[in-house]
Design a protein that fits this description.
By secondary structure, the chain is of the alpha/beta class. The chain contains seven helices and 13 strands. It starts with 5 loop residues before the first strand and ends in a 20-residue tail after the last strand. This is tRNA uridine(34) hydroxylase.
Length: 255
């Protein structure tokens, strides 16, 4: 079977950028020069986004990003597809690289315990562990981990209020495991829970995407597909495009 020609790189890194606006022009210029498409977000707290193009183009841009302050060890997850999943290239400067809206939440200072995909099944199978899906309601609707709690939040900004409203249900000293698509929302949500006084907080390192890449389907506790924010709409085990379609509002068409 021929290798799909388009390489997709999903990446993020919490790092301190003193002047994120100054980083935008050279990054955008390089992306456009090598023919990449996708979206990258820059903020004082770091970088986040997904880009797609040829292997060589992705390598050049990742080399540029790794040279940014604090980004040498940036987390990158790769997948492939036959058609370009983005229409154009955008590099935006934002207040946050993932919007939670809780001032002072800083994953570079405090964060939960990372759990490798190989160890995730054992953790979430523990009956004493509360497993929480931190993604939006329309993402959860097409796939989730077996037994996970769905907060039914329309946006990530709604997560802090949901947790504060429901915290007493989890007991005085809960053991909480959280997951999201690529890991970035979990970094922030675990930092938030730690700041709220929850001691035993864990999250899936690399997110669902890394789990679906590493864990064989026959051993997997994932059920359904994983929503992605590009024209592929969703991916399954092995990060193979799921074949779903999107509604005009960006949500997934349900049969």
């Amino acid at each position: 079977m021929d290798t799909p020609p388009i390489l997709v790189a999903a990446l993020y890194r919490f790092a301190r950028f003193d002047d994120p606006a100054a980083l935008r022009p050279p990054l955008l210029a390089l992306c456009e020069e090598v023919g990449l498409k996708g979206t990258l977000l820059l903020a004082g707290e770091g970088i986040n986004g997904t880009i797609a193009g040829s292997d060589n183009a992705i390598a050049q841009v990742l080399a540029h990003i790794r040279a940014l302050p604090g980004c040498a060890d940036i987390e990158v997850k790769f997948s492939r597809c036959n058609a370009m999943p983005f229409g154009r290239m955008k590099v935006k400067v934002k207040r946050e690289i993932v919007t939670m809206g809780v001032p002072g939440t800083d994953p570079t200072q405090i964060v939960g315990t990372y759990v490798d995909p190989a160890d995730w099944n054992a953790l979430i199978s523990d009956p004493d562990v509360v497993v929480i899906d931190t993604r939006n309601d329309y993402e959860v609707a097409i796939g989730s981990f077996e037994g996970a709690l769905d907060p039914q939040t329309p946006t990530f900004r709604d997560f802090p209020a949901w947790f504060r409203e429901n915290r007493e249900k989890f007991g005085p000293a809960p053991k909480i495991a959280m997951y999201c698509t690529g890991g970035i929302r979990c970094e922030k949500s675990t930092a938030f829970l730690k700041a709220e006084g929850v001691e035993d907080v864990f999250h899936l390192k690399g997110g669902i995407l890394k789990y679906l890449e590493d864990i064989p389907e026959e051993e997997s506790l994932w059920r359904g597909q994983c929503f992605v924010f590009d024209e592929r709409v969703s991916v399954g085990h092995g990060l193979v495009p799921g074949g779903l379609e999107r509604n005009p509002d960006g949500t997934v068409k349900q049969d």
